[in-house]
Predict the 3D structure of the following.
Amino acid sequence: MPKAHRYKFCFGPWNISEGQDPYGPTTRPAQTFDWKLAQLKKLGFDAMMFHDDDAVPDIDGKSDAQLRKETGELKKKLADAGVAAEMVAPRLWFSPMTMDGAYTSNDSKCRQYAIERSLRCIDIANYLGTDLIVLWLAREGTYLREAKSGRRSIELLVEALDKMLAHDKKIRLSIEPKPNEPMDHAYLPTIGHALAIAQLTRDPKRVGCLIESAHAILAGLDPADEIDFAMAFGKLWSLHLNDQNGLKFDQDKPFGSSNLRVAFNQVRALERNGYGTHGEYVCFDVHPFRPTKVEHWLAHLDNSRRTFLKLLKKARSFDDNKAKQLIADRNLAALDQMVLEHLMGA
Ligand code: XUL
Ligand code: MN
């Protein structure tokens, strides 16, 4: 194991959400950005992550000069609060222009919109002082298999990534795969797909990934394996820890809420690979349960970090030598029980 280091924590303004779902409206009143930033600071988190329109609301209607002005104001607020900007992600799923996909839309005007918006997102990242762009490719997939060419879509994705890499010689692109929702099937459903497409771009070194626990589980994978895989390539540049109870809608539950052992194994994987030692943040992409009262609105974030830190103690105090002996003796039943009792504190 590498030397113990202090992890840095992050969340986004959308993680203080108001409770709407596809079947019902909000259950808490919307709060201002300034309130959310104050809460993040009060909780002692280190950084905030942004969508482009979290940084500059109504971005599509605004000029480049306006974009620069508003981002400058945001940068000052963050600096005054001592909070870093972790990344910026283009929101490519909300506009009517991205109805049928963004970079893989069947309409060339819509593809052009998606690329232009992504380049503006890179400009925002530059103004805010982060070199990390996150790409959750929400609608790059199919509702209906016959509606798009999978082969052509991969070519279009590479073209889009190349344009972003050419726009700024220092920016890094972190692909956040998710296998489904809102699409039936996404074109880049796993970390393997994300790292494979990186190889087709003009600068593979600057295309890496972000793992979200829930997205890996939705792909039928163990997030700890995804962490080990990405880190074997030196390409895990960000992380959305949360939890997910099986194959249903993307639940974004608090970290460890559904399966403490799967969460423990993610922390162990981060530890053995030295995640965070190059400045990477642990971000929690979690949401409050819908009935949550305003006075308990931040608990899912605070709890996720508490669980992470408790599991970190468990990972650091796990008896690796004893485990090695049991593995050599093929005594997996004893290893299994050892893990359970370690987690239960028995
Ligand atoms: C969607 C998701 C997004 C990304 C950022 O499932 O996780 O919030 O993390 O665009
Ligand atoms: Mn996410």
The pocket of manganese (II) ion (ligand 2) is lined by residues 176, 212, 240, 285 (CB under 6 Å). Residues 232 and 334 are 29 Å apart (CA to CA).
